[in-house]
Amino acid sequence: MADLQVAPWTLVIPVKRTAIAKSRLAPAYPQHRPELARAFAVDTTAAALASPLVHMVLVVTDDPLVSADVTTAGARVVPDLPAAGLNEALLHGATVAAAEFAGNGVVALSADLPALRPAELTAALAACTAPRSFVVDLPGTGTTLLAAAPGVPLDPRFGVGSALAHQASGAVPIELTAIESVRRDVDTAADLAHAVQLGVGPATADVMSLVLGAATGTEGLAC
C-alpha cells in the first residue's frame, strides 16, 4: 500500500464511558457489558493503528480505563470536552485533528468494530477519494466510517438512519464487497456472535473467554 497516492488519515474514534455504553448488550451480557465495550474500543483502535494509511488515532473519551488502554496501544486521547453527544464528540476530535495534522484527511470511525482487520480498513480508506465518503454498516442503515479529505469539513450525522443522512449531505458511499469487518459494528448479541465468527481482536476474545467460563463454571476457555 506504500505506493498509493492518497493522503494519510487521522482517525477519530469516539468512546462512551463504558459504565453506560452498549446498553443493548445488557440482556445477554449483564455482568460483562462494560468490559465488552472497553474491549471493542481497544481492538478497534489497535487494528486502526496497524493500517499503513493511518497516521494517528485520536480517541475522544472521558473513560479513564479506555484512555489508559488506547494510550498503551499507541493512540492519543482527546477529552470529550463538549460531552454533548456523538456528533459533537466527533466534531471536537475532527477540530483537533485538522489543527494538528492539517495535511491529513479526517476519518470518524465507530469504536464498536471488534473484528476490524487492518487490510480491510486500508482498502476502505484507499477508496475514499471523494471529498467526503462513508461506509454503510451491515444492516444497511447506519454508518461505521465517515471520511473527509484534507480541508473538507467532516460534517458527521451519526444516529438513526445515518447512512441516508450522510448520503443526503453529499458524502459518497464506498462500494466495496470485501470489507465486512469494517461494516460489522456491534450493538446486539447477534452482532457480537457474527463478529466472533469473523474473528475478534485479542481484548474482545479475552472477555468472551471469561463469558464462556462464567456460563460453564470454568475459567480460561478460548472463545
Summed up:
This protein is an alpha/beta fold. The chain has helices at 33-49, 64-73, 86-100, 118-126, 162-168, 180-183, 189-198, 202-216; strands spanning 9-15, 54-61, 76-78, 105-109, 132-136, 143-148, 172-173.
Keywords:
7-stranded mixed β-sheet, single chain, alpha/beta, 7 strands, 39% helix, 223 residues, globular
Polypeptide structure, described:
By secondary structure, the chain is α/β, with parallel strands linked by helices. It has eight helices and seven strands; from the N terminus they run E-H-E-H-E-H-E-H-E-E-H-E-H-H-H. The chain is globular, with a radius of gyration of 17 Å. A hairpin with a 6-residue loop joins strand 5 (132-136) and strand 6 (143-148). It has a seven-stranded mixed beta sheet with strand order 3-2-1-4-6-5-7, with helices on both faces.
How much of the sequence lies in strands comes to 15-25%
Helix content: 25-40%
Low-confidence stretches: 218-223
**Major sheet:** 7 strands, mixed
Oligomer: single chain
The computed structural class is alpha/beta
Q: Please, how many helices?
A: 8
Strands in their spatial order, largest beta sheet = 3-2-1-4-6-5-7
Instruction: State the end-to-end distance.
Output: 32 Å
Helices, strands, pairings?
Layout: E1 9-15, H1 33-49, E2 54-61, H2 64-73, E3 76-78, H3 86-100, E4 105-109, H4 118-126, E5 132-136, E6 143-148, H5 162-168, E7 172-173, H6 180-183, H7 189-198, H8 202-216
Parallel strand pairs: 1-2, 1-4, 2-3, 5-7
Antiparallel strand pairs: 4-6, 5-6
